[in-house]
Model the fold of this input.
Amino acid sequence: MTANLTLVLTASALVAAGVYLLLERSLTRVLIGIILISNGVNVAFLVTGGRAGGAPIVGVTEPARMSDPLPQAMVLTAIVITLGLTAFLLAMAYRSWQLTGHDDVQDDVEDAAIRRLAESDAGSSSYDDTDDDASPPEARP
Amino acid sequence: MTLLLLLHLGLAALGPVVMRVMGRYAFLVLALAPAASFCWLVAQSSQVAQGGSVVEVVSWVPSLDLELAFRLTTLQWVFALLVTGIGAIVLVYCTWYFDADDEGLGRFALNFTGFAGAMLGLVVADDLLLLYVFWELTTVFSYLLIGHRPERRADRRAALQALIVTTAGGLAMLVGLILIGNEAGTYRISEILAAPPTGAAVTAGVTLALVGAVSKSALVPFHFWLPGAMVAPTPVSAYLHAAAMVKAGVYLVALFAPAFADIGPWRPMVLGLGAATMALGAWHALRQSDLKLLLAHGTVSQLGFLVAIVGLGTRSAALAGVAMVVAHALFKASLFLVVGIIDRVTGTRDLRELSGLARSMPLVAATGLVAAASMAAIPPVAGFVAKESVFIAFVDVGATPDGDGTGIGPIVAGIVLAALVAGSALTVAYTARFAWGAFATKRGVSATEPAPVAAGFVAAPAMLGLLSIALGFAGAAETALIEPYAVAFPPGAHVPDLALWHGLEPALALSVVAVLGGLALFVLRDRVERLQARTVPMVDAGRAYDTLMRGLDRLAVEVTGTTQRGSLPIYLAVILVVVVVLPGGALVLGGAWGVDVRAWDVPAQALIGGLIVAAAVLATRARRRLKAVVLLGVTGYGTALLFLLHGAPDLALTQVLVETVTIVVFVLVMRRLPVYFSDRPLTSSRWGRLGIGLLAGTAVAGFVLSATSARIAEPVSEDFPAEAVSFGGGKNIVNVTLVDIRAWDTLGEISVLAVAATGVASMVFVHTRRAGIARPAEGPTIAARRRATGDDYRNTWLRGGRTLTPERRSIIFEVVTRLSFHTMIVFSLFLLFAGHNNPGGGFAGGLVAGLALMVRYLAAGRYELDEAAPVDAGLVLGLGLVVATGTGLMALLFGGEVLQSAVIDLTVPLLGEVHLVTSIFFDIGVYLVVVGLMLDVLRSLGSGVDRLADDDEEGEPAEREPEVVGGVG
Done:
């Protein structure tokens, strides 16, 4: 099977631009990156589906001339799922703005705390927490 | 046996319910499970005593050759009798031990009954893997029982320690069992014992299995977990120490001894660790002042003794070992139960505070003394009979040239025997300390005044005490019952038997030495105590465990600190680099490079492709949010054109609709977000991102080219056109694929949409997912004016427009919306129903309907949206899911497969021939879900954001829960 070079290049450019944005911190940019990647992958599906042809509708196009309908059904699913994802991430960006005043993804504070422990060669309190029974059991509810 | 296990399981599951209904008397009901099992076992005694066996096999996972295989021979029978008998007695005892208002009794009932069931399963399992499953079940249940009061740190710690130590041993055992099973070619225990495999792998396997047994039975160096576990309620300790859990290790040693006792590391392990544990445990027991802790250390000591004797591997040792297991179970359970009574009625277990209990509780004291006599091996109780036989077995080993068939030299045998006698002397000493501490009247301690003891409370230990006495006199009968297990070993120096009187033999002398030595230690207890205070343990296993756990914690911190950077870009970069390096590397090294390419199908593709690429590159460089979104839209519409040129009208239609919705939704949110993206000072990392982006793009191109060239088979969709018409009843193959051929995919997809919509609503209306419906009549402007003028403003283009301030309104937009809305809705329905034969379908239709709602909202605000769709979005989503799944399930009613469609042709007056395919209802479900998603997005990111913004302007906190202004839809 031959590949459509135009579509291949378009898909790879969309993915490259999308990945570049995906690695940003602004949630809006990350989302734009995801949509670009999604468009790129959808185009890539067309390439692997084979040659262009007529609409895959019986009675409109001869079966031999039809474009492959299977990847189309998959891409259609993907398009709508991307819409759901877009809405969800936008709501997240909005919520982030509400809480922090911007939509940048922050580093995890818990991970940072563990990293500080590791740098100071200390253990976590997860084992020693159960080590001492300072207050008598009666004092607990 | 399967039935009995199911009975345990069923009663365990019902435990909390029975407990709620009956209070603490529920324990009597739960005791039925072990009691019924006990009765069944007694009924099998004649068959087992003749050396027969009871076998039951139920197929479990046939593809893995896993079977629920159970087998009852003498050894299993004895252990099962102990497990069920003592289990039943302890459960009955619980009725009086607990108060009706104790917390967590339901949980306790469940865990205890489950524990008893697991232990029974363990001793009757005839499959190595099944045995392992039950083994770990007892570990889990004992963890839950030891941590019965999880609010106490010490309890949690003890439970976790028991879990970690025994699971670690259990894992070693699992490896060992698999080695043995693999080498033997079967996991059936009876077959392995009949023809034991040999070789290095088996030696390793048996050694590992012994590690599991040693950890479970709390032998050195794992002995520290058992005394810790005594924080559990006393009935649990009684069961755990006497019949369950720790006896599992003894059982495993006894089970394997006939087949594997001659394997190299076996005897050094069981005898060495056994003797050491016996001495160490007894030495620790001697210094305890908490009666329960004293018994716990005593159990450690006894377990070492038991493992040494059942593991020795001679016929007389086997007989003595099993008798010792029975005697130990009876007296240890009885002793713990007595301590439980003392604890309950006096409020203390400290032997320094108790005094005069022999006088105030004579029955309890008598019971305790009988059990203590058995523990110290004083005639005429069971413990003496058993221990005498143990000494006889070890004397035989030392006295015969070949070590009574074991090959142990006389010097080693002498050392082991001396250790056991010394251990026995220590046992007598701590038993005397226990009896004196619990019951004696002490000078200088005021007499303890116990509360009255219920008859049922003391009945349980008293019954066990009577059994101890009875067994002391029933040596001959016991010998006959245990004999079938002992004959698995070669005949030894002389025929063993259990009896009170064997004549004036060396063993009797050893018994006397042990008792006298022990009494001497007790009499000189003050000196012993001073000596104990001076000696410092050379190696403290408990402390070593602590050090190990802290080290593990440190390692975890280092590993987590290194790998979990907490930064999203770093995680994504790592994932993407792996994608590029691994599959990309494989592509470069071994990919098929003979790819044929063509430039394009139609030249216009190149033009549009170029446009898309340019827009994508500009989008990455945009600093204004809005600019980036518009450029994103260009790539989206361009992609739609590519779909169209490729011959995919459905895709093009959906892509255009989705892109439009996306842009509008973006803009709705952009209203609130800053105009520019925040500055990123780290420009150096930009080159890194650029590099990863280019690499990823190149890799994708490589994947696509390689995948295309790899396609050599006929595509599966070759047959779709014919199938779509004949089975799916439609001509639009893509749509038939969605609603019929791959309908499961679509079902999954609309479920995801419903989840996403719910997520959006939840994030905006933090406390509830429901937005509430507020129609224009309730809006601020109209309500105020209506009160003032009485005009209800019905004669307007869009009623919601009145709720907006004049500068926000556009009359032309309102007029156009009014004129076009119904047309759009009709068009969406047309797309829905036409989709089966022409481009369209539920997705496209739903999106058009959503766009119509969006136009209403944009033209006249949030009150207009509620006027247009006065329903809760969640209701629409739910209805859509119900319709779609209902259609799918409906096919089952007519004898079809799930989601199978049927074609119905009807003649309807006026309409003529109607060609109805049931999958249209599935598509209606899809339509509804998409409309619900759109409505949720508009309510949340449109109306919801509006409302929060209004609140902000009025100076109210943005975080406030939205009020439901009108009726809830």
